[in-house]
Specification:
CATH architecture: Up-down Bundle
Shape: globular
Strand content: under 5%
Helix content: over 70%
CATH topology: Methane Monooxygenase Hydroxylase, Chain G, domain 1
Radius of gyration: 20 Å
Number of helices: 7
Order of helices and strands: HHHHHHH
Largest sheet: none
Number of strands: 0
Length: about 260
């Protein structure tokens, strides 16, 4: 059964409502932190700001702690509440999403480390424009995926999934250009390779944003769409919309026959 945000605020137990809202709020807090990490990491690279790069690395510890805290709350809910239907999907989606957010934080840290290496070795003669453009693109994907999660918005989640192909094309185009440049000027290989690792990290951020979008569709539609092409995912979402319009204010206890 297709669910909405209101579905998770209508339990008999007020404490259960609070626990579900807590993990959702913590996830969005973690998401906001890693989104800022990506933004700051790319900015530190383009501007050569080693202080900001160091701050990005430090924030990674906070991201890791948030993941542990959220996992503990989710484990508590699974053990004590034994959630079913959409409530179970929410808990599972949060657990999966925190893992991807933590990895986005790791990729931001890698970019920050590249900034620090370039500060020591000398700036790269090429690649900063590509990194800034790709960084802006994938950061928007993360933001849109988080907004989709906050609003239970499958349409926005689909839009994020479609963007991943564009990011892959931008990444391949940028790496080809940099490889050609290194062949023409072997003296720049070390510096340009640092930029190529940055582009790889940004491409991975886009992949993780796509994963977040898939969890939104799983949460709302009850369909696991991992490893599924966007065209087929769109059919799943549109088919569910035709079969069953959103029902507001229905508790998960009434969803015994819904697909998990």
């Amino acid at each position: 059964m297709k669910i909405s945000q209101e579905t998770h605020t209508s339990h008999i137990s007020q404490r259960f409502n609070e626990e579900l809202e807590e993990i959702r709020s913590q996830l969005l807090e973690m998401g906001g932190l890693v989104e800022q990490q990506v933004k700051d990491a790319v900015h530190s690279l383009v501007e050569g700001d080693t202080h900001l790069a160091s701050e990005v690395k430090k924030k990674d510890k906070k991201v890791n702690l948030l993941q542990v805290e959220i996992d503990e709350v989710c484990t508590h809910i699974l053990a004590r509440r034994q959630p079913a239907a959409s409530d179970l999907r929410l808990v599972l989606a949060v657990i999966r999403a925190t893992s991807d957010l933590e990895r986005i934080g790791d990729e931001a840290s890698k970019i920050a480390k590249a900034t620090l290496r370039l500060a020591e070795e000398g700036s790269s003669p090429r690649g900063y424009i590509e990194a800034r453009h790709l960084g802006s693109h994938v950061r928007q994907m993360v933001q849109d995926a988080l907004n989709a999660f906050a609003r239970f918005d499958t349409a926005q989640a689909l839009a994020v999934l479609r963007e991943d192909d564009t990011v892959d094309l931008e990444y391949r185009s940028a790496t080809r250009a940099l490889i050609t440049f290194m062949m023409e000027d072997p003296r720049s290989i070390s510096q340009v390779m640092n930029i190529m690792w940055v582009l790889r990290s940004l491409e991975r951020v886009g992949d993780h944003a796509s994963n977040l979008a898939e969890y939104v569709i799983y949460l709302v539609e009850g369909e696991d769409v991992r490893y599924t092409k966007p065209e087929k995912i769109e059919k799943v979402v549109m088919h569910q919309d035709e079969l069953e319009p959103p029902q507001l204010g229905q508790s998960s206890e009434d969803e015994g026959e819904s697909k998990e």
